[in-house]
Structure formats: structure tokens, C-alpha cells
Amino acid sequence: MTSLQLLQQSPATFTTSCFVLGLLVGSFLNVVIYRLPFMLERDWRQQCCELLKIEDTKLVDQKSPLSWKRLSLAEPASHCPHCHHRIRPCENIPLISYVLLAGKCANCRAKISIRYPVIELATGLLSALIAVNFGVTWLTLALLIFAWALIALTMIDFDHQLLPDSITIPLIWLGLAVNTLELGTGITPQESILGAIVGYLSLWSFYWIFKLMTNKEGMGYGDFKLLAALGAWMGWQALLPIIILSSLVGAVFGIGCIHLMGRDKSAPLPFGPFLTGAGLIMLIWSSQIYSFYSSEFLL
User: Fold this and answer.
1) pLDDT band for position 297 (50/70/90)?
2) 18, 68, 114, 229: least CB-packed within 10 angstroms?
3) Are 210 and 203 in contact (CB under 8 A)?
4) CA–CA gap between residue 23 and residue 142 (Å, rounded)
């Protein structure tokens, strides 16, 4: 019996395997979320200096990754930001290491943010949920990649109000490819292409209408590309529910932050996390949402 046959005959084994894989990927996503924005900023600074033919003389905080001699997803090796202790493999086991170390650096005992194990656990649980819903198929593998990318985009946008093209644009093409290969999404290539086009143009149109009316920018171009990616994966039919869900949750969250946490009304609120959240809801529970909508509003 092959490994694939074993997974097909034992859904629990497959789900557990996806959960463990999600934990490992979540650990890597922590690196992507933290380092990618600094990698992009360093690249932008370098390009600006080359264009203007000047040297970058702006002082950089020595604790910032911008001051590192090498900066990539692989280099330098993961280390404590306080004492620069290199994290050994036994100290980097998802969830387990955090518990065994009591949430502190093994060397200097500085506190480690609980955010790291939370992202690992969230990635593992979401991976398991996708495995349960879609089974042992090539579509599941594609959807896992899709979900992992959305987690990275959510956290980067939350931290920096940035949705990197290096993630959103490949996500658009991958969604179009998955639906062209007919892996079982139920979305035709035409619906996928239309979803990408309508997804981008709908927010692009809103952006310009809002800007012409208020002389302010209501969102960034990354949001257009993110909704285009969601449309490419789930078709144009999913766009309206995604926009409604994300807008409602975003409005409730924003009002709550203003009244409960004293957030400045003029402070920008990233829209990407709400788009990705709505997209994941539609990915997992789209059939139930469409069924509820049909029974309640299309009688």
C-alpha cells in the first residue's frame, strides 16, 4: 500500500499530517511576515539611491533588520533580537519549543512574543480544516498554498499596511492556473478570469470615486490585487459576498477600536486582513453561504 493510498483510506491520518505540516509552514511564515517588508524596503532604498545617484546616508536603527549585512528569508539564521543568540533546531520546534522554554529566550530569558506560536497554531488548524473539507486531492495542496499566502498577507498588512506584489501577483496567476487545470474547484476558466478582472476593477473604481469625492486615498493598490487573486481562485460569483463580509467586519472592528480602545478616527485601518478573512470564509463555507442566501432571499 502506497503512502497516498494510506492517506486516502485514513482521513484522520491525512488531517493530522496537514496539521503538522501547517505548524511547520507557520514557523516559516513567521520569518516571511517579519523579514519580507524589510527586504522590500531595503530594495526600494537601494533603487532610489541608484536612480538619484546618491549614497544612502540615513541612519538606520542597529536593531532593525535594515542594518544587517545580509537580509533574506534564509540569512541570517534565526536569532534572538535581544542577545543575538542563534536559535538551535531544538529551540525552533513549532509550539513545543515555546512551551518548553516558557516563552523566553534560551540564552538571555527575554520574552518571546506569543504571536509566533499563535500564527503556527492558526496555520496548522486552517490546514487541517482544508484537509477535512477537500480530502486527499491535488486541489487540497493548491488550497493549502493559497491559505498560507493569505495568512502571510494578513499579518504583513496588519503590521505595515502593505500587500507585497511578490505574493499577490503570483497568487493571481496560480488561481487562474488551478481553475484552468480543472482540479475540482467547480469554477470554469472563464469565471476565474472574469473574477480576477472584476475583482481588480471593482476596488480600483471605488478607489478613484472616493478619491475624487474626498481628495483622499481610501485604500491601496495591494487591495485591488488581493481581491483580484480571490476572484481568480473562487470566481466572480464570490466577489460580492467577500466584499460584503469584509466591509461589515471591517466596519464593526473599526468602530469597536474607536469607541473601546480610543483609536484615532483618522488613523488608517488596513483592509487586507478583512478581505483575506472573508476569502477564507468563502473558501471553506461557500456552499452553506450560498444555500442560506438562496433560501432566505431568493424564495
Assistant:
1) low
2) 114
3) no
4) 17
Size (the chain), residues: 299
Through-space distance between the first and last CA atoms of the chain, rounded to whole angstroms: 50
Q: Tell me, what amino acid is at 1?
A: M
Cell triple for 248 = 461589515
Backbone angles phi, psi at 271, to 5 degrees: -95, -20
Who's near 199: CB < 8 A, 6+ residues apart? 224, 227, 228, 229, 230, 231, 232, 236, 239
CA distance 291 to 268: 35
Cβ-based neighbour number of residue 95 at 10 Å: 16
pTM, rounded to two decimals: 0.91
| Mean pLDDT within 246-258 | 81
pLDDT higher than 80, residue 173: yes
Q: Where are the alpha helices (DSSP H) in 185-220?
A: 189-214
Cell triple for residue 104?
523566553
Q: Find, among 54, 224, 80, 233, the residue nearest to 144 by Cα.
A: 233
Mean pLDDT of the chain: 88
pLDDT tens per residue, range 199-238: 999 999 999 998 898 888 878 899 999 999 999 999 999 9
Give helix 221-234 / helix 165-180 axis angle, nearest 10°. 20
Percent of the chain as helix, strand, coil, to the nearest 5 = 70, 0, 30
Phi, psi torsion values for 65, nearest 5 degrees: -60, -20
Closest CA to 154 of 108, 55, 207, 223: 223
Domain boundaries, the chain: 1-136, 137-299
Report how far residue 25's alpha carbon sits from residue 233's, in angstroms, rounded to the nearest whole number. Answer: 21
> Rounded to an integer, what distance in angstroms lies between the CA atom of residue 271 and that of residue 207?
13
